[in-house]
Specification:
The chain is of the alpha/beta class. It contains 14 helices and 12 strands.
Length: about 425
């Protein structure tokens, strides 16, 4: 009987095409039943909304937003909300699917979801951003809730935006519901360590991957593409672990110094509104050039499709740790594997954020909050355990870390579906 493959629609979206190619490959390897393959290859729910926002000059602009729940077999939906001009239905579908596997890889009881609004927040005033957020939150309120779907920060969103979503949802139901989002300010029930959690998770698995390669982290040269929340925290923590950051970038371009950069200074410069292309004393280089510079650890922490068949032959890092979602195409993966470059996949490498979001959710339910040390200790345990399981499966099956992580994640979700059965 012919094998049934889920289709990647819309085919034009590269992120979704990558997600489906990855899923179909691992479904073949796991020999998934046709019914399970079809179910896991599709989203459970998809909401597209076109909503008006009053701008500061009195005009009305219509924005498009999405909230997609991929699978709920292992628990409530979990996934961030991003604000970016390139947000699309296909991209959000891909991100929701990756969230399903990510939660399963680190073995937390969530399903995957994602949301986003197609906008450029840099061109919005604070008031416009708040009005957009509150209207979007109202539109997706039919899906989100503390027991059903819990958003969190993602690209260009933060604790303040989560506070607006929490307040909007609470006003609509008539009482405070802190658990409707994670990544909130600590004063509203957020968790210690949440803001840096994704970056800390990246640093932890980078350390573990260097051990797997038999190389010391002390003195390792690190390049980070995308020095936002994830990249900057990963850089700072790796620096504290003894590594040396030699290159960073933002959307304007990158800064490179083989003798080392100070992550704290770079973070201060970025936080003050500076562009790395304008950084004093250093020559600006492009993001494309940055990826191909020699280093020990390369961390793509920007957007999807950064390492492709075009530049993969020129990557000079023996280790890539994916801080972003979907930064490497399947074609590039094959090239990197052939060249012996170790890639720690996104669904493992950047799972620190959703892990501490889970901690925040648990703390909120218990109304008992942990200190920073307890949060980071628990995160360390979860991330190292997940890396150990994925690395062991990789070695046992003779597959890449990405294939092993996907096998582990998909298998856990498939088993949950088998145990639950099909309603009715």
């Amino acid at each position: 009987m012919a094998t049934l493959h889920a289709t990647a629609e819309p085919a034009q979206d590269p992120a979704y095409a990558i997600a489906m190619a990855q899923f179909n490959a691992v479904a073949d390897r796991l020999d998934l039943e046709d019914g399970l393959r079809a179910l896991l290859g599709a989203s459970k729910r998809e909401l597209t909304t076109h909503f008006p926002v009053k701008m500061d000059d009195g005009s009305i602009r219509v924005f498009t937003g999405y909230r997609i729940q991929h699978n709920l077999a292992r628990g409530p939906a979990k996934g961030g909300i991003r604000y970016h001009p390139q947000v699309s239905l296909g991209e959000v579908r891909a991100l929701a699917m990756w969230m399903t596997w990510k939660c399963a890889v680190v073995n937390i009881p969530y399903g995957g979801a994602k949301g986003g609004v197609a906008c450029d927040p840099k061109n919005l005033s604070l008031g416009e951003l708040e009005r957009l957020t509150r209207r979007y939150a109202t539109e997706i309120s039919i899906l989100i809730g503390p027991e059903s779907d819990i958003p969190a920060p993602d690209v260009n969103t933060n604790a303040r935006i989560m506070a607006w979503i929490m307040d909007t949802y609470s006003m609509n139901v008539g009482y405070s519901v802190p658990g409707v989002v994670t990544g909130k300010p600590v004063d509203l029930g957020g968790s210690q360590g949440r803001e840096e959690a994704t970056g800390r998770g990246v640093a932890i698995v980078a350390r573990e991957a260097m051990r797997l390669l038999g190389k010391p982290l002390e003195g390792a040269r690190v390049i980070i593409q995308g020095f936002g929340n994830v990249g900057s925290n990963a850089g700072r923590i790796l620096n504290e672990m003894g590594a040396t950051v030699i290159g960073v970038s933002d959307s304007s371009g990158g800064v490179y110094n083989p003798d080392g950069l100070k992550p704290s200074e770079m973070e201060e410069f970025r936080a003050a509104g500076g562009r790395f292309c304008d950084y004093p004393t250093h020559k600006c280089i492009t993001n494309a050039q940055l990826l191909e510079l020699p280093c020990d650890i390369l961390i793509p922490a920007a957007l999807e499709n950064q390492i492709t068949a075009k530049n993969a032959p020129h990557i000079r890092a023996p280790l890539i740790v994916e801080g972003a979602n979907g930064p490497t195409t399947p074609e590039a993966d094959a090239i990197l594997a052939e060249r012996g470059i170790l890639v720690v996949p996104d669904i493992l490498a950047n799972a620190g954020g959703v892990t501490v979001s889970y901690f925040e959710w648990v703390q909120g339910l218990e109304r008992y909050f942990w200190d920073f040390s307890e949060v980071t200790t628990k995160l360390e345990r979860v991330m190292t355990q997940a890396f150990t399981e994925v690395a062991a499966l990789s070695q046992r099956e003779g597959v890449t870390l990405r294939d092993a992580a996907l096998m582990l994640g998909v298998q856990r979700v498939a088993e949950a579906i088998r145990l639950r059965g099909v309603y009715p």
